[in-house]
Amino acid sequence: MTVSKPEILAVANVHPLYLKALKEVFQVHERTHEGDPAVFAELAPRIVGIAAGGESTVSRSLLEQLPNLKLVSVFGVGYDGIDAKAAVERGVMVTHTPGVLSDDVADLAMGLVLAVSRQIVQADQHVRRGRWPQGPMPLGRKVSGSRMGIVGLGRIGAAIARRALAFDMSVAYTARTEKPGSGYQFYPTAEQLAAAVDFLVVITPGGQGTRHLINGAVLSALGPKGYLINVARGSVVDELALIEALQAGRIAGAGLDVFAAEPHVPEALWGMPNVVLTPHMASATDQTRRDMADLAFANMQAGVAGRPLLTPVPECQL
Ligand code: NAP
Ligand code: 8YV
User: What is the whole-number distance in angstroms between the Cα of residue 127 and the centre of ligand 2?
Assistant: First the structure.
């Protein structure tokens, strides 16, 4: 007798390691919701889990089509594209992968700090294009001993702060709530923080609560010697205001891992020598992607079996 596997829907091109683990235990329907509505309607009542990525969208309307859905397991810590409120209303749990990627994201944030201020990408081109014999690179900006401002002192923000301290930087931050035990200077707004630092690193969740938190006024406060680093979500920064500030020299430069309309990056940014662009890869190391896949898979198994979840999102914690 063949035992049928529980059926799940992958709403995105989920990471191959996560997909491989899922396929051993579940029947995985890959992006079937984007295809023939009649085929999906026939399948929908059998779907018990959704596998998603950190940038995936799971809307209220999709949730409403899945009467027997138990959980959405996100491969990533950010879940701003998942309608968690609608999920909770329907008794559907949402899980994510906090903690296991904090070191990598903090490492890349520091990498962008160094890359923009020390012109590492430009310097590489200087050598490769044979320009060194014609003269030296323009001078860079010293990082050690400078002032770091962190927008969002959560798991990753705290990991960035620890790295900044190793560079003898002062650390200040803003968040929704002050962290009196942290020992770092708190500023109630991003604008006040920006005015007090050399590097403004953004690492909040995305979504409506943080949309355009970094606007033209914040960038003006950061000033012509200040650098913006965004490893959070593209929505947190007003991208047009950022481009204007860079074009006008109102900030010194930017290091960006995330963008408003990924994978599309405004062409205005491509040619700017004081900007370093990476393709949303802050957690993209072999080790961390394995840990994320293990955790996302373990959550899916637990949720489908009705066992306690390992890492539910705050909205789903009792
Ligand atoms: P976390 O522990 O929940 O920390 C989030 C921090 O943001 C908290 O300190 C929170 O303040 C603060 N915050 C939330 N809303 C805010 C607002 N309106 N104004 C100011 N601060 C606000 O999350 P995490 O694990 O550090 O991850 C943070 C985010 O990083 C994720 O949600 C994701 O979007 C992004 N991320 C990006 C990548 C990448 O590949 N680039 C990888 C991983 C994560 P309170 O402490 O006061 O609540
Ligand atoms: C991943 C992320 O690139 O964890 C997050 O919130 O943005 C990144 O770690 C993403 O989740 C992969 O889908």
Answer: 33
pTM of full prediction above 0.85: yes
End-to-end CA distance of the chain: 40
> Is 264 tagged catalytic?
no
Enumerate long-range contacts of 84-87, CB under 8 Å, 24 or more apart: 84/313, 84/315, 84/316, 85/315, 86/59, 86/60, 87/58, 87/63, 87/315, 87/316
CA of 211 to the centre of ligand 1 (A): 13
What six digits make up the tokens of 44?
């929908």
280 belongs to the catalytic site:
yes
Closest CA to 122 of 277, 285, 282: 277
Catalytic residue list contains 262: yes
What are the 10-residue block averages of pLDDT along the chain, 318 residues in total?
Answer: 88 94 97 93 97 95 97 98 97 98 98 98 98 97 98 98 98 98 97 98 98 98 98 98 98 98 97 97 98 98 97 94
Atom of ligand 2 nearest to the CA of 284: 3
Encode pLDDT of 262-303 as tens digits: 999 999 999 999 999 999 999 999 999 999 999 999 999 999
Q: Are 312 and 94 in contact (CB under 8 A)?
A: yes
Contact 173, 159 (CB under 8 A): no
102-277 CATH: 3.40.50.720
As assigned by CATH, the class of the 7-100+287-316 domain is alpha beta
The domain spans of the chain are 7-100+287-316, 102-277
Residue 203 CA to ligand 1 center (angstroms) comes to 5
